[in-house]
Amino acid sequence: MKVEDVKVVGVLGAGTMGAGIAQVCAMAGFEVVLRDIEDRFLERGLNNIRKSLEKFAAKGKLSEDVETIMGRIKPTTKLEDLADVDLVIEAIIENMEVKKETFRQLNEIVKREDAIFASNTSTLSITEMAAVTRKPENFVGIHFMNPVPVMKGVEIVRGLLTSDETLEFAVEFTKKLGKEPVVCRDSPGFISNRILMPWINEGIWVLYEGVATKEEIDRGMRLFTNVPMGPLELADLIGLDICLAAIETLHRELGDKYRPCPLLKQMVQAGLLGRKTGRGFYDYTQK
Ligand code: 3HC
């Protein structure tokens, strides 16, 4: 399949990443079918898309009006509504069994024989997901960075059976979205989270051991390494549940050096997931 052949993109999951992916696809002129399991998740996702588009519009960074772009996104709770998509990008919960079950169902639903199936997973195996699809050679990882509308980098992950054509398609498609693709092969955490998640986890260990306050850890790392965010504020942006799932995968697959900090586990158990729930390492409820 060629990028020019793509008219409709199916996006699974209207959470932080799924909504961002739907937004950038719609901004690039694609029709989008955005599916989540409950209406309230779709409403929240569409609200976030609108807010982000309004930010761009206020700065004169949109070539079309907000409503035209919003009009390209069709929200639905029915997986069957993805029957006519050319490309599916999955951004649902980071659970291998749930993802595989969803792709199994899509095998029966998506009509186009040469449709491309992609996953935005942050750490899970592209090869394993591909194995349950009808054409593993048409499966690829397209891993966006948060916040999707702003971040240029996208990781393109080649599964064991991903074809050269599918890899090329993913590279060209993400360029069409205005992104800069970086290619790697399937391996736990790919490039991005293999390196980023231990950095975040280590920041949490440093806090847990009382080496410094959270503010000093973040301010320090911003100053010492010139990154826009320190590890704890970045964990709040990404979502602590996502960080924990990622570091647990790395721990399971690559060994003890990736052991999750107990404080991270406890914060997830307490529902302190970061910006999306209003509280994580910092409090966002007053802002
Ligand atoms: N939509 C539209 N515009 C947005 C936006 C959104 N969702 N979020 C931020 N912006 C805009 C702001 O309006 C602002 O625009 P301006 O410069 O024209 O005024 C600009 O982006 C910068 O935002 P802020 O002034 O609020 O704050 P910062 O300068 O700190 O930038 C940031 C915010 C872009 C998030 C920056 O802090 C950053 O790059 N942080 C690091 C992000 C990062 O590392 N992401 C990767 C995480 S890893 C990942 O996602 C992988 C996954 O698998 C876990």
TrEMBL record:
Keywords: NAD, Oxidoreductase. GO terms for molecular function: 3-hydroxybutyryl-CoA dehydrogenase activity; NAD+ binding. The keyword Oxidoreductase applies. Gene3D superfamilies: N-(1-d-carboxylethyl)-l-norvaline Dehydrogenase, domain 2, NAD(P)-binding Rossmann-like Domain. It comes from the Archaea. One of its GO terms (biological process) is fatty acid metabolic process. Its EC number is 1.1.1.157. Pfam families: 3HCDH (PF00725), 3HCDH_N (PF02737). The keyword NAD applies. Residues 9-186 form the 3-hydroxyacyl-CoA dehydrogenase NAD binding domain. It is an enzyme of class 1 (oxidoreductase). Coiled coil: none annotated. Residues 189-284 form the 3-hydroxyacyl-CoA dehydrogenase C-terminal domain. The record marks 143 as: Important for catalytic activity. NAD(+) binds at residues 13-18, 36, 94, 99, 122, 146, 276. This is 3-hydroxyacyl-CoA dehydrogenase.
